[in-house]
Design goal:
InterPro entries: Thiolase, Thiolase-like, Thiolase_C_2, Thiolase_N. This protein is an alpha/beta fold. It is built from 15 helices and 11 strands. The protein folds into 2 domains: 144 residues, Peroxisomal Thiolase, Chain A, domain 1, CATH 3.40.47; 251 residues, Thiolase/Chalcone synthase (Peroxisomal Thiolase, Chain A, domain 1). Strands 3-2-4-7-1-8-11-10-9 form a 9-stranded mixed sheet, sandwiched between helices. A two-stranded antiparallel ribbon has the order 5-6. The two termini are 19 Å apart.
Length: 412
């Protein structure tokens, strides 16, 4: 079976762009990826277009990819539309890898795009309402929020303003972690402060202002223990990757020095498990599969991008990826182990909390960052000597964990 390489990446800034359409952002990201790769659009043999909420936001429920890609001349090839909640883009990336491994062509495009920001705030926040079983959504939300029962909410620690119901769910996960392992709000704040410091060096990040732990703790509350900087914002944006087979690299005369090998690409769905059974979390199981596929372990990773829709997400995921023992994610973050220059830098891009989270583009946004790191092209946020990199991207909720999770390992 052929090796697969990422030969080009492109990404728009993430943020709030009232004047840009899905087509605009898709075109910008794909054009950047094609230019980065040196591949002409007519050499692409297949495309996977990831998007989660355009149907909800604009009523474009079908053929989103065919419409977004046609205007840039990408037509007459298989175009597959991918929706897997916040894991849509990493799912599309994995499908592009599989498309090439199956011998369907030499070159494939994976692109994710999302336009989420709207002046209609009820419409905007309700975009997340189908990220779980809608047949009993209120019951599911309450059950997940109740995971942290027993941790007292300080007075004034809940926002009076509207926010996504998923923040209550993440707060439930955070309180369960606090109750089980003794994790503190200060440790979650350390994650957020670190990511905001990283994003100050990322020109494509939605927020670029560094913050201290104290500033994060004193920021407006969302729902305990989460404050505003600990939570990913509503974002617009797109990201794209061009993938090639090893033979395709040769046939198209591409520069092998800038090609980054896909060493593993794993997609799993969640399972029924007790909330406290962290060792069978779907991301941990996906990570174990990815390490086996790559022939590597956590100790071989130079840098990671993980799904920190809130700061608690990063704490949980660095434990799932095996960087620290279960329960040590918070203390390790406070010790600075996950900062650039630390033992295992996590989210040098700024992560979802600060870089932004256009859900259908997020997973390929992570790939963009890791490819940039592995090429040594990340500037002031460069992780020195990066050789292997891992991305974790989750989507939706079912039971007591994400409905889907992707773990991708890239390397020189």
């Amino acid at each position: 079976m052929q090796d697969i390489y990422v030969v080009g990446v492109g990404m728009t800034p993430f943020g709030k762009f009232r004047d840009k359409t899905i087509k605009d952002m898709t075109g910008e990201a794909v054009a950047a990826a094609l230019a980065d790769s040196g591949v002409a659009a007519d050499r692409i043999d297949g495309a996977f277009f990831s998007n989660a909420v355009q149907g909800h936001m604009e009523g474009q429920h079908m053929i989103r990819g065919e419409i977004a890609l046609r205007e840039m001349g990408i037509q007459g090839i298989p175009v597959v539309n991918v929706e897997n909640a916040c894991a849509s883009a990493s799912t599309g990336f994995k499908l592009a890898v599989d498309f090439l491994k199956a011998g369907n062509g030499d070159c494939c495009l994976a692109v994710g795009a999302e336009k989420m920001y709207s002046d209609d705030r009820a419409l905007m926040f309700s975009a997340f309402d189908s990220g779980w079983d809608v047949s009993n959504g209120e019951e599911v939300a309450q059950r997940l929020a109740d995971l942290g029962a027993g941790i007292e909410e300080p007075e004034g620690s809940k926002s009076p303003k509207p926010y996504s119901v998923f923040m209550d769910v993440y707060a439930g996960f955070a309180r369960l972690h606090m109750k089980t392992f003794g994790t503190t709000q200060e440790q979650f704040a350390a994650v957020s402060a670190k990511n905001h410091a990283h994003s100050a060096h990322n020109p494509l990040a939605q927020y670029r202002d560094a913050m201290t732990i104290e500033q994060v703790l004193n920021a407006p509350p969302i729902t305990y223990p989460l404050t505003l900087p600990m939570c990913a914002p509503i974002s617009d944006g797109a990201a794209a990757a061009i993938l090639c087979t090893g033979e395709g690299l040769k046939r198209m005369g591409l520069d092998p020095a800038r090609a980054i090998k896909v060493k593993a690409a794993i997609l799993r769905s969640g399972t029924d498990r007790p909330p406290e059974d962290y060792k069978n979390h779907l991301t941990r199981l996906a990570a174990l599969q990815a390490y086996e596929q790559a022939g590597l372990g956590p100790e071989d990773m130079s840098v990671a991008e993980v799904h920190d829709a809130t700061a608690v997400g990063e704490v949980i995921q660095i434990e799932n990826l095996g960087f620290v023992e279960f329960g040590d994610g918070g203390p390790a973050s406070l010790r600075g182990e996950t900062s650039i220059g630390g033992r295992i830098p996590v989210n040098p891009s700024g992560g979802l909390e600060s870089k932004g989270h256009p859900v259908g583009a997020t997973g390929i946004g992570q790939v963009f960052e890791l490819v940039t790191q592995l090429r040594g092209e990340a500037g002031a946020r460069q992780v020195e000597g990066a050789q292997n990199a891992i991305a974790e991207n989750g989507g939706g909720l079912h039971g007591v964990e994400e409905a889907a999770a992707c773990v991708t390992i890239l390397g020189r």
